[in-house]
């Protein structure tokens, strides 16, 4: 699969056309289709990768980087969390731990290892 095919596949998953993706990334119309012939600049490729909740590594090679164990959904969650102010991140982390503890108490989830160690 080529660079543009991978971008097209991810854009489709995100219900985006090339034109919409190019507009959102602030790049010229028709630019992405040229990337199989002309190597894109890193800043443009990074903007597209971020919009697609992907990595530049994946777009260029079709393989995940060293963080291959992280799904696109997890990357999106991390991206959203990174937009929060520091205090909100701390509060949100506490809420997640409380939610997991509640699931473990109800038998819906095994108690996370981090919680076991804290006891």
TrEMBL record:
GO terms for molecular function: DNA binding. This is Helix-turn-helix transcriptional regulator. PROSITE patterns: HTH_CROC1. SUPFAM superfamilies: lambda repressor-like DNA-binding domains. InterPro entries: Cro/C1-type_HTH, Lambda_DNA-bd_dom_sf. It comes from Porcincola intestinalis. Residues 7-59 form the HTH cro/C1-type domain.
